[in-house]
Amino acid sequence: MARPAADPGAIAAAAARLFLERGYAGTTVRDIAALADVDPAVVIRRFGSKEALFLDAMRPGALAAAWRRTLEGPLDGFGARCAEALLDARGDTRGVFLALLRASDAEGIGSQLRRAHEEGFVAPLRERLGGGADADLKARLAAAAAGGMLYALWAVGDERLAADRDALIARYGAVLQAAIA
């Protein structure tokens, strides 16, 4: 019996499910192909490599899009807007963040994540701050601080940090605001 035509969306959905469940290292192209009901060669033909499929399926740009939305409005409210947006990120964003973090040492993934960090987080804030060397440092500090909060909450699981949501938004918002001041 012939397999159905390979739908790139179905392959990416199967990959996302497995990468979230098993991580990058624990997921093979054969596993993805089996779940998507396609030949493993089709997976490679459609996406080029496991790394490319991982980045497509995990969509690091979703978190960057949320970050860019926090840049709308006056800069003096950026810190609180950013902290609140990060706390309100959907559960799938958390899974993607953790999958990306855990795969960051895999060949090909780390360089792509650095590019996504630069293009999705640092560059938009640097531009919003008016450019220049000082704006670059401020943007990098804010991006690092935001990532640090997500790491503490999602990778480490520091529940006490998030115990008082309003206090966390106010205090972490102040940290982020200080980074761009």
UniProtKB/TrEMBL annotation:
<dbReference type="InterPro" id="IPR041678">
    <property type="entry name" value="TetR_C_16"/>
</dbReference>
<keyword id="KW-0805">Transcription regulation</keyword>
<protein>
    <recommendedName>
        <fullName>HTH tetR-type domain-containing protein</fullName>
    </recommendedName>
</protein>
<dbReference type="GO" id="GO:0003700">
    <property type="term" value="F:DNA-binding transcription factor activity"/>
</dbReference>
<dbReference type="InterPro" id="IPR001647">
    <property type="entry name" value="HTH_TetR"/>
</dbReference>
<dbReference type="Pfam" id="PF00440">
    <property type="entry name" value="TetR_N"/>
</dbReference>
<keyword id="KW-0238">DNA-binding</keyword>
<dbReference type="Pfam" id="PF17920">
    <property type="entry name" value="TetR_C_16"/>
</dbReference>
<dbReference type="GO" id="GO:0000976">
    <property type="term" value="F:transcription cis-regulatory region binding"/>
</dbReference>
<dbReference type="InterPro" id="IPR036271">
    <property type="entry name" value="Tet_transcr_reg_TetR-rel_C_sf"/>
</dbReference>
<keyword id="KW-0804">Transcription</keyword>
<dbReference type="InterPro" id="IPR009057">
    <property type="entry name" value="Homeodomain-like_sf"/>
</dbReference>
<feature type="domain" description="HTH tetR-type">
    <location>
        <begin position="5"/>
        <end position="65"/>
    </location>
</feature>
<dbReference type="InterPro" id="IPR050109">
    <property type="entry name" value="HTH-type_TetR-like_transc_reg"/>
</dbReference>
<feature type="DNA-binding region" description="H-T-H motif">
    <location>
        <begin position="28"/>
        <end position="47"/>
    </location>
</feature>
